[in-house]
Amino acid sequence: MQYASIKAEINAAIQRVLDNSSFILGREVSDFEETFAKTVGARGAVGLASGTGALQLALRAVGIGPGDEVITTAHTFFATGEAVSQLGARPVFVDIDLATYNIDPNLVEAAITERTKAILPVHLYGHPADMRPLRDISTRHNLWLIEDAAQAVAAEHEGKRCGSIGDLACFSFYPSKNLGAYGDAGGVTGNDESLLAKIRKLRDHGRTSKYEHDEIGFGQRTDALQAAILSVKLPRLEEWTEQRRAHARRYNELLSNIEVETPFEAANSRHVYHLYVIRTPRRDAVLEHLRSRGVDAGIHYPIPLHRQPAYVKLGHGGLSLPITERVAAEIISLPIYPELTEEQIEFVADCVGEAVLRSRHAGVNY
Fold first, then answer.
1. DSSP for 223-275?
2. How far is CA 64 from CA 7, 83, 87, 88, 175, in A?
3. pLDDT tens-place string over residues 306-356
4. Residues 150, 151, 153, 155: what is their CA dihedral angle, to the nearest 10 degrees?
5. Confidence at residue 360, expressed as pLDDT on a 0 to 100 scale
6. Cα 118 vs. chain centroid, distance in angstroms?
7. Are the beta carbons of 269 and 102 closer than 8 angstroms?
8. Is this structure's pTM higher than 0.85?
């Protein structure tokens, strides 16, 4: 639906790249980087091949490596922990806040050891993590603060946009994101030009000239087609964000008298609703009913990172994160995107109401 609304401009942008035949980096990428940095309020941006690559290179740029520890959340997509582990470091998972589903700042300081080098909060579902106490902790302990903003483009915390608050911030432009490419793409933003310059070098195999490399880098360059597509979409981001927020308000109204927990939005934050996530102890029965009615609901995410087989093998399986585990057992993501209609929202809400009522009458309680 979104493509249909901007088809002519998208096709023209793609044709422009084909005509120029400059497919990797180049003007399309640098123009997008400049505009995107301004959009999030950062001094600069570096386009990359994926959001996972953004995490890898941001962590590498600040020196994370073997033996280091990075404090983060287990309630997130696998790439958050994966990027830490790929550098030989160890993710240290702490529990989350029950309202926002983001890392609980009150638990971070106790997790710091002599090996801790960074804090990696995730702005999950489009709601910013509580960054003020995290910044205070990182400053007090001389730690890097890296934002995982993959789901939070245009989100705000205390008047600042996600992407301009930490030392660096990592974005994903995966097709399903609020600002999505037509393939994999990602980026890093920040205010320290020396860190951004290092990431630019790392994305291009650590090269200083065409055939000279003074560092072991990565193949994480953005391709021009994706940058051109993102540049068409970027001017519409604010409008699309407000449509998502309006849809969330309508869901909140329709679900207000139904026994589900609707998303929380802190007074000092702007939620951009990459996902609209409700919570119910009758999750499995509700989800089954929704799917039977043709509602494409999902779970983000059913298995916390410390329970993932890969991390159980690495010794995280004995970790107890009660809030994370409770949330993972109760959450459902309802459809939300700018082009959603009022009728569709009402239908989904009615189905949720039906599901809760049926499960309660059936005595279902997980």
1. BHHHHHHHHHHGGGHHHHHHHHHHHHHHHHHHHTTSSSBPPP--TTEE---SS
2. 42, 10, 7, 8, 29
3. 999 999 999 999 999 999 999 999 999 999 999 999 999 999 999 999 999
4. -130
5. 78
6. 18
7. no
8. yes
